[in-house]
Write a structure and sequence with these properties.
alpha/beta; six-stranded mixed beta sheet; three-stranded mixed beta sheet; 12 helices; about 15% strand
């Protein structure tokens, strides 16, 4: 049995972490997630991904039991680099990944969620990086991504104390796009993903390529690339269809070309 459930509907891929009881991020789960991203990339019809956890948690963190099998600093470094490489891939993926977070996203679970492009949380969820309580530190880029969303001062507090914040506070801080009831969470994620999937994949891919320039501080390079993308997109069949549909006051029929 795999660690991930995978299904598609209305041009949206749904990935569900299935690693009970806490949906821990084992090395097998990381490998399975990488393989699913490969599979999704080969399906031109998919325009958005929703990632969620089965059971009580989104993911309560890395598989601590696996740590005991490692012996050398180089082993731990390799583990961290594997997680970082995967999460960097998600961050720079060609289509948006929406994390639907309920229960808890702790340690590696939060690091995974932070690599996604949009985060919806249940208002009662717990999000945090508790690694220091175990005598270790975050290893999947948590010290780097968290300050981008909550600011450096709050990141210091969260990492140094290890205390989680609620879904409501995550929304107030900008770590989550929305805080919802647990009943509303997945339907809202589905609605959002399908709204994105109604767009031309050409424009989706273009936006996914451009926005990361802002996160790296390369504003002028991003602006330059935006102009190039703008010129190319305007010559597409989908651009012509979208503009014509606007004039005719109808819904566009994009063909992703």
């Amino acid at each position: 049995m795999g660690t991930l459930a995978f299904e598609t509907n209305n041009q949206v891929a749904y990935l569900t972490i299935q690693s009970p009881p806490a949906n821990a991020l084992s090395t097998r789960l990381l490998s399975d997630l990488s393989e699913k991203l490969d599979e999704i990339a080969e399906d031109n019809a998919i325009k958005a991904v929703v990632l969620k956890g089965e059971g009580k948690f989104f993911s309560a963190g890395a598989d601590i039991k696996e740590f005991t099998s490692l012996q050398h600093a180089s082993d731990y470094q390799s583990l961290a680099e594997k997680g970082q490489k995967l999460f960097n891939r998600i961050e720079h993926y060609h289509i948006p990944v929406i994390a639907a977070i309920h229960g808890a996203a702790l340690g590696g679970g939060l690091e995974l969620a932070m690599s996604c492009h949009i985060r919806l949380v249940s208002d009662s969820a717990k999000l945090g990086l508790p690694e220091l309580t175990l005598g270790i530190i975050p290893g999947f880029a948590g010290t780097q991504r968290l300050p981008l969303y909550v600011g450096t001062s709050k990141a210091y507090e969260m990492v140094l104390t290890g205390e989680p914040i609620s879904g409501e506070e995550a929304f107030r801080l900008g770590l989550a796009n929305k805080a919802l009831s647990e009943e509303e969470l997945f339907p809202e994620a589905t609605k959002l993903a399908e709204k994105i999937a109604n767009k031309s994949k050409l424009t989706i891919n273009s936006v996914m390529k451009l926005i990361p320039y802002a996160k790296t501080g390369q504003f002028y390079l991003g602006v330059e690339e935006e102009a190039k993308e703008f010129g190319q997109i305007f010559g597409s069949a989908d651009a012509k269809e979208g503009i014509q549909a606007f004039i005719e006051k109808r819904k566009p029929d994009f063909q992703d070309k």
